[in-house]
Amino acid sequence: MTAWLALVQVQLRLYLNNRKALVLHVLAPILIATFFGSLFGGAGGSKEPVHVNVGWVDEDGSPAAVALGEALAADPQLRVQRLSREEALQRVRAGKLPVAVVLPPQFAEQAGNALFVGSKPVLPLYYDPSDRMALGLVRGLLTQHVMQQVLFKGFAGAQGSRRIEALQTQLQGQAGLPSERRGQLESLMRSVQALQTPLPQETAASAATATAAPSPTLGAPFEAQEQAVTGSQSGYNGYAHSFAGMGVQFVLMLGVELGVGLLVMRRSGLWLRLRAAPLSKGTVLGSYFASTALIAFLIFSTVLLAGMLMFGFRVEGSVPGAVLLLASYACFTAGFGLFLAAVGGSPEATRGLAIMATLLMVMLGGAWVPSFVFPAWMQEATLFVPVRWAVDGLDAMLWRGQPLADVGPPVAVLLGSAAALVALAVWRFRWREGD
């Protein structure tokens, strides 16, 4: 036990004396986590919505098309830029606009008619293929405003009456349409127009009092009430996820440094000198495991503490659960390093393969971006990656506000993986390179 403690102290002293490595291991995850945290919504305290820039090309020019453009410009989620078709194409092609909408001539009239008769007009949407999320948002908002401005409001008042008459004439000229179906469509048109026109008593009541009930009109049959739901009292904080993810990545790099460092020591003959001393294989490997796990725990805790002080997130779940999760991940990191040292060949080849494996685990584990953006099959496949359990567990403790019981599965996976890696390391351990 005395020899084991002495080896642990030596490893800790050597690491702490390397000031450059210490600063890099602490500062790098903080800087990168700050960048990613700002992308994930920051501290979450601002109520200002995320704006999507969209180009607007109005080649219709009708009152309904103008009203549609004004409605889109007033939408808090969009920043509309009025452009020509050529300008819109150029900006999307250059990556300066994610989406551009082109309203072709007579679009409003054709869209209104398409509710009953006629073919649907084509609405060109030019988009940047690297930003398909913006395309989905713009498509949804555009559908909403077209339904409100072009279809529903287009049948109100005198303009709606003229449109109904034109559609009825168009229906009469359609050959092959059964008379019964024609009558149903005409009845539907008249009902829509009547519903969009206020009754005289409703108009008088609205003028007499501001609290009068509005006349029924066609429109969206609901009003969305958006509410973010977490177990946290302070709400979602994007920095909590980013600091957890970057901590996971750079702490795992410590395991790579341990494994490569042990291979360098073996090449130099240090392991043979240790073998000459009355030290067992378990004592030597156990000291490296303990020192690396302790360093990893302290580094990870420091990174999270820095994020809490700088950006205000807290452990909204169980504090003991968060500590237990950090300790379990530190053990996994140490086991990963010992495994690399046991199965690795030359330090140079092992470093390259280990860094690639680390980046893959971090990427698939959701440390860079949340795992919910992965395809469904990948979300299932990454459950076999221990890093995924660490990231999900930290999210549960830091900002989801989950209880201590929720860290049970992640801790079991991390400690089980660490035990398996240590067992493989002891089995494949060689005192000399090439044995």
How would you describe this structure to a colleague?
By secondary structure, this protein is mostly helical. Helix content is 65%, strand content 5%. It is built from 17 helices and four strands. A four-stranded mixed beta sheet has the order 2-1-3-4, with helices on both faces. Helix 10 runs antiparallel to helix 16. Residues 210-216 have low confidence and may be disordered. The chain crosses the membrane at residues 21-43, 243-264, 285-313, 319-341, 353-378, 407-427. Residues 205-432 form the ABC transmembrane type-2 domain. InterPro entries: ABC-2_transporter_component, ABC2_TM, ABC2_TM_bact-type.
Summarize the structure.
The protein contains 17 helices and 4 strands.
Quick tags:
mainly alpha, abc type-2 transporter like fold, 435 residues, 4-stranded mixed β-sheet, 2 domains
Which helices and strands, and how do they pair?
Elements: H1 2-17, H2 19-39, E1 52-58, H3 63-74, E2 78-82, H4 85-93, E3 99-103, H5 107-113, E4 125-127, H6 132-152, H7 157-172, H8 179-196, H9 200-208, H10 238-268, H11 270-276, H12 281-311, H13 319-343, H14 347-364, H15 376-381, H16 386-398, H17 408-428
Parallel strand pairs: 1-2, 1-3
Antiparallel strand pairs: 3-4
Membrane topology: Multi-pass membrane protein
Protein name: ABC transporter permease
Organism: Roseateles subflavus
